[in-house]
Design goal:
Blueprint lengths: L19 E2 L6 H18 L5 E8 L3 E8 L2 H5 L4 H14 L2 E8 L7 H13 L4 H14 L4 E8 L8 E8 L8 E12 L2 E13 L13 E2 L21 H24 L27
Parallel strand pairs: 1-2, 3-4
Antiparallel strand pairs: 2-3, 4-9, 5-6, 5-8, 7-8
Helix pairs in contact: 1-3, 4-5, 5-6
């Protein structure tokens, strides 16, 4: 009972391709372990680079590693210095020739891995889990997703008893193979234990035959300069809680300005009632700039 299929593994060969593309032969196990080592190493090495997935392709003597990232500027480094360092480190690790390609993710809000990591970072920064989940759902739906479901499990808000809570919006048809559903799991290491974050994002349905090559739909980043690229947002990870946080702050500031406006309208001319800010009628006094 309660056995669930992984949404990505369930769609492999139908609308999803594999993240490792090579023929194993007699050394299948060694290559599999090496792939895992490469992924683990890169995830730890560029943990602030917004890495979504790492695609590994092999030929006889060369390993081609494609890093899908929302912040290629951080991964590439100044004048490509960081990429060269990573290349040398991977050569030492694998003892083979390594080539690194970097693909930029234009819309990080629609990538389940980046969304899950963003929520996990917010939870580590002690932001309320409900607020983190709701602002993320709003920003993902605004970017044009068909549906999103987020589930957090653990000692939510530092409670004694662990529980799980989920929020969803739109549609997430898990049993429809042609539905393009992205899924990811991330963990927040809080002071009161681990909190797991699961994210499902439905990006629509795929009709007809789809190209299953692993790097489909990405755009290669050729820029060797640092800084934030076009596709990256200030949102994911950090105290501001994503775009939603910034917008919330904006609204609050806007409210303040309206209040001031209301203050200026207070105390009008002859017998004119005050504006939005003031409820007092102006009387016969000439109206000056109101203070609140």
């Amino acid at each position: 009972m309660g056995q669930k299929a992984h949404p990505i593994g369930n769609r492999l060969g139908i609308i999803r391709g594999w993240d490792s593309n090579w023929f194993g032969g007699n050394h299948y196990a060694d290559k599999l372990v090496e792939d895992e080592k490469i992924r683990k190493y890169l995830s730890a090495r560029i943990n602030k680079g917004g890495v979504s997935k790492i695609v590994i392709e092999r030929t006889l003597k060369r390993i081609t590693v494609t890093i899908h990232t929302a912040r290629p500027g951080i991964v590439i480094g100044k004048g490509g210095a960081e990429v060269d360092k990573i290349k040398e480190e991977l050569k030492k690790l694998t003892k083979k020739e390594v080539q690194i390609n970097i693909f930029e993710i234009k819309r990080p809000e629609l990538d389940a891995q980046l969304v899950a990591e963003g929520i996990a970072k917010q939870l580590e920064a002690r932001i309320s889990f409900r607020r983190a989940m709701k602002t993320t759902i709003a920003s993902t739906m605004r970017m044009g997703a068909e549906g999103i479901k987020i589930m957090t499990s653990g000692r939510l808000g530092g409670a004694e008893m662990a529980r799980s809570e989920q929020y969803k919006e739109g549609r997430i048809p898990l049993h429809t193979f042609r539905a393009d559903i992205d899924y990811a799991l991330s963990e927040a290491l809080t002071t009161y234990g681990k909190i797991g974050v699961k994210v499902w994002i439905c990006k629509g349905e795929v009709y007809g035959k789809r190209d299953l090559s692993p790097n489909i739909g990405g755009t290669s980043s050729a820029s060797g300069k640092g800084g934030r690229p076009e596709g990256a947002t200030a949102g994911f990870g950090g105290r501001d809680g994503g775009r939603g946080g910034n917008e919330r702050g904006g609204d609050r500031r806007g409210g303040g300005n309206d209040r001031n406006k209301g203050g200026n309208n207070r105390g009008g001319g002859n017998n004119r009632p005050g504006g939005q800010g003031g409820g007092r009628p102006g009387g016969n006094r000439p109206g000056g700039p109101g203070k609140r």
